[in-house]
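Class prep. Protein, please:
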Amino acid sequence: MICEIKGIPVYYEKYGEGIPILLIHGWSVDHRLMSGPFEPVLSQLQGYCRIYIDLPGMGKTPSADWLKNSDDMLVILKEFIDKVIAKENFLLAGESYGGYLSLGLINELGSRIDGVFLLCPSIDSYLNVIKSGNLPEKSLLWKSDLSAEPEDAAVVKAFLSMAVIATPETFDKYKRDILPGYKIHDKQFLLNHYKGEYNPQSEEALKKIFYDKPVCILTGRQDHVVGYYYAYEALDRFPRASFAILDCAGHNLQIENDPLFSQFVKDWILRVELEYKKLKG
């Protein structure tokens, strides 16, 4: 489906009916990173409308010259919410950079967001995270033979650069959920034009967020991209958060430990539903 926003045809996929859940993928991939792991869980639950968006410059959504930073991307997301979700309250899930954008949405639309799921989230700007020295070293804890054609050597290399658990199963999920979006992202836009940070004023506002609705924050013990330190440090601002650091999991936690990932999604939805029941009396 297409939603026209400020001259940009924003691509998204929508499944089911009921309470909207907006799911935002990370940097240089597309909606499949989210629909791949989330949809098998959420599709089994009744009463939820899952909305998977492709951010500008990624997937099937083109970039635009006026998009310079995360404040601009937030403009796109808020208008998308106005058009696709309208005035309803909704749930929010964000992965990596999508988690960073989710913080911006909480800051501006928190009263309308009934629960948040953050998967390997970037809590601070990526530049600050890199400079912090709080990232684990890249680890490959398990590797088994991967069936790939010789011409796929570059694909295997890219997979291994992120993998903590490298098995035929995790490799297949990588090729299904992550690689297709990565192949088609607008490299020129993301490398040379768009900056992934918020402006300083917005960044300061994010550090003061207080959000007391059901949250799940999942991080990987071996995540060398965003780590877990900043997410743990932010816990006091999310008093209703379940928080986990999963061993044997890196930045692609959802494909390396699918059983626990799925269980945490179910638990998050259960806690959201308990809140809805309380509101109904």
